[in-house]
Amino acid sequence: MNALAVSLLAFVIVFGGALLGMCVVLPESHLREDVKDVVRLSAGLIGTIAALVLGLLIASAKSSYDSSNTQIKQFTSNIILLDILLEQYWPEARDLRVTLREALPPTVDQIWNEHNNGNKSEPFVATTEAAAFIKKVQELKPDSEAKRDLQARMLSAVANSRQLRFELFAQAHDSISIPFLVILIFWLTIIFASFGLFSQLNPIVIVTFFVGALSVSGAIFLILEMDRPFAGLLQISSDPLRHALAPLAL
Q1: pTM of the prediction?
Q2: Burial per residue of 81-117, b for 16 or more beta-carbon CB atoms within 10 angstroms, e otherwise
């Protein structure tokens, strides 16, 4: 879902609820202090629930964003480690280093495209270049104990990279559901409308409601942006992974 569009819609609905509340003309019997207390208590209860939900959503989205960022960093370090091990295996592994550099850009494109693709039901398929690289590592025939150790370490790094790759694929979906957002926006609208019921229509009140609605819609925007770490304004940069390996001197 588009984070900016959803947050703008939330702002319009919440701010509109506040303006609607101010435009409602209540009869004198509804302006008694006991009635106001009931409305304030109900709004306070809903406000507490909404604040807790917003706080939990921000914490959850931030945790998910940091987890994806950490996985990309681990994936990058594994690629660099593989290249170093292949360099130590020289000269038999020279072609493998070339294959690794050829496999990296398509893999990066695939990771970012998976998280930006609208069709989330597609099965996982490794890139042709990555599959070729893994096959070549497995087919190495070390002729010494040192090279056998290097191959074992390479296979371990490959296994770790594949595990991280599978985890990134499994996370390629929006975790914030639309019904959940609808309920949250409904709560916020009720709160702002209840505030407007007993408020005078004047510039200070309108500006206050505007800032408040902008703040809660901004929180929703941050939640949705962090829930999609490979797209939008807060997306994780692919440059460190793309340029992790220096060109080979031919």
Answers
A1: 0.82
A2: bbbebbeebeeebeebbebbbebbeebbebbbebbee
Segments of 50-198 assigned E as strands: none
pLDDT in tens, 135-193: 888 888 888 899 899 999 999 999 999 999 988 888 877 677 788 888 999 999 999 99
CA dihedral 155, 158, 163, 164 (to 10 degrees): 150
Spatial distance between the Cα atoms of 245 and 84, rounded to a whole number of angstroms? 10
Per-residue pLDDT reduced to its tens digit, 26-85: 666 666 776 778 888 888 899 999 999 999 889 988 998 999 999 999 999 999 999 999
d(C-alpha 162, C-alpha 154), whole Å: 12
Separation of CA 231 from chain center: 8
241 contacts 109 by C-beta, under 8 angstroms:
no
First to last CA, the chain: 46
Cα–Cα distance between 109 and 127 in angstroms, integer?
10
Q: Which of 40, 33, 91 is nearest to 193 (CA)?
A: 40
Alpha carbons within 13 angstroms on the beta-carbon side of residue 105 total 5
Cβ atoms of residues 165 and 75 within 8 Å: yes
pLDDT at 35: 73
Q: 178, 157, 176, 165: which is closest to 68 by C-alpha?
A: 165
| The amino acid at 249 | A
Q: What is the pLDDT of residue 171?
A: 80
Helix locations, 31-144, DSSP H: 33-88, 94-116, 128-138
9 Cβ contact list (under 8 Å, min separation 6) = 185
